[in-house]
Amino acid sequence: TDSMKLEQIHNQVDPRKQPFRMSKALIAVCMADLGMGIGGPMRRVVEFTGANMTGVTICQHQVNRANQITSELPRYIQDRTEYLVGDYNDLPSQMKPSSYDAAYFMESLSHSEDRAIPLAQAAKIVKPGGIVAGWQWMLKPAFDYDNPRHMDLKRGMEYGGGLRNLNKPDARHE
Predict the structure, then answer these.
(1) Which of 36, 37, 90, 116 has the largest count of CB atoms under 10 Å?
(2) pTM for the whole thing?
(3) CB of 104 within 8 A of CB of 132?
(4) Angle 2-25-44 (CA atoms, 0-180°, nearest 5)?
(5) How many CB atoms lie within 10 A of CB 48?
(6) How many CB atoms lie within 10 A of CB 117?
(7) How far is CA 58 from CA 48, 118, 145, in A?
(8) pLDDT tens digit string along 89-112?
């Protein structure tokens, strides 16, 4: 059962991290990082919770780098991470429907023109009652499109982060 898996995972997690790990009630046994980059956040989730993680990115170089970094980490992290090349708008076939407890986008949705498509893909792979979450670049509600300084900062963030178009929270309708 899932609760037995959780107990086994908790017993294998690095004991130095015990004070920091999440409650058993909060751990997702199997999670997906959609738009993982080189997998830094997902390795930290494994380190602190013992969750099994699958990450997807469109770049083979990022998968290679993630594998290289992970190969130098403790075995329990290596055993719980999988990196895939794929597009979060059309997830790889290895990511089966209803097979993950949670999926998240960490700053990766900002690169999508239509966020509804990757969000629908995430909902498809998450089990009923599971979690789909996202952290995203956004402009503060007080952002003033008529203020040249604000627009310079916006353009700099978009250019530096490779972002399409930053918006205020109320400007997103997907």
Answers:
(1) 36
(2) 0.74
(3) yes
(4) 90
(5) 16
(6) 15
(7) 26, 13, 32
(8) 999 999 999 999 999 998 888 777
